[in-house]
């Protein structure tokens, strides 16, 4: 990483694609090393659990066969995910708002909400059509999308399951808000990839920092993740020509919120060169 843009912007495209490819290849090799009797030919997000000595179900270590674009439709695959998460809630539910029911996987999407997959895929196509940046990094950040059962707008990403986005939303939900929710999760994914290559923080990543999104103190790493998600949302709404678009989870102007978040992080934390470049990237998109 040469410090000329690492998380947003034209220079960041090569960085994210290269790091994503390298990380996925290393993850597959580690999975092969851990289970030498298995022949894994392609990356699965669930392989990321091997380094922390968690064995995911074998079924999840290969890609699902029934997909609509990036959206998983296959009931047995979704059921396996739901069962695994129920028995290992700490893997994704730490620090999340809400209860386990809020993050329940929609295992029978084909019968309960068959239109959900096409809606999500249409939104992903829209994001890629409207923004060259998101088009160029989409495959680096998104392996697949898992539908959530609760008909409320919510999303989830975990650096322990890199590349998988968990998304839920109500019927009739605004297309632009859904697009913002997708790129919000992509922002988390991008930061997770960069964290695999650089510590980003010199100071303690768990020290409290005021969050401009939650309006409370949170660990610095969570506040940085929130800023990354907001930065990706800001990039999208500016690419769509709607820079004043608001989001229910952040009712204030998103660009102004991002600038406040950058200021709070700069005041409270010390960063590596990569960390400083990340904040510089955020600042550039906020002022664009």
In summary, what is this structure?
The protein is mainly α and 288 residues long. Helix content is 49%, strand content 8%.
Enumerate the spans where pLDDT stays under 50 for 5 or more consecutive residues: none
Percent range for helical residues? 40-55%
Number of helices: 9
Order of secondary-structure elements: HEEHHHHEEEHEEHHH
Report on the biggest sheet.
Answer: 3 strands, mixed
Any overview of this molecule?
With 288 residues, this protein is mostly helical. Helix content is 49%, strand content 8%. The chain contains nine helices and seven strands, in the order H-E-E-H-H-H-H-E-E-E-H-E-E-H-H-H. It has helices at 10-34, 75-87, 109-112, 114-130, 132-141, 175-195, 220-239, 254-268, 273-287; strands at residues 67-68, 71-72, 144-147, 154-156, 164-168, 208-211, 216-219. The strands form three sheets. It has a three-stranded mixed sheet, covered by helices on one side. Helix 7 runs antiparallel to helix 8 (254-268). The model has no long low-confidence stretch (mean pLDDT 92).
